[in-house]
Design goal:
The protein is an all-beta fold and 106 residues long. It has one domain: Immunoglobulins (Immunoglobulin-like, Sandwich).
């Protein structure tokens, strides 16, 4: 699992809808490609992504081999109070990447 990126505002007014963009660097090997010797490259994909806001899940995705390299997600959330967004990616080899971003709500 590679580095992660999250782009979201640091602050918002109560009730604002904020845009959140996330990306994780990952090769997403489908298990269908062959290397230069003709041997199948083993499957290695990100299987799931989830986001929690103040401890409550607000977004979840289950991924499949057809998803491209470096999975990117864009979604929206309503800023109701200050708190942490926790983003978690899990792959099929037990790898986990987690990033936290704080939102201040005025």
């Amino acid at each position: 699992m590679g580095p992660t990126r999250v782009r979201m505002p640091a602050s918002a007014k109560r009730g604002d809808v904020i845009e959140i963009r996330t990306l994780v660097q990952h090769s997403m090997e489908s298990g269908f490609r062959l290397d230069n010797t003709g041997k199948v490259i083993a499957r290695h994909i990100v299987e799931s992504f989830d986001c929690t806001y103040k401890g409550r899940e607000i977004f979840r995705a289950k991924l499949h081999p057809a998803v491209s390299t470096n999975p990117f997600f864009m979604f929206y959330a309503v800023a109701d109070e200050s708190g942490d967004f926790v983003f978690t990616w899990r792959d099929d080899e037990g790898g986990v990447a987690t990033t936290t971003s704080h939102l201040d709500v005025a």
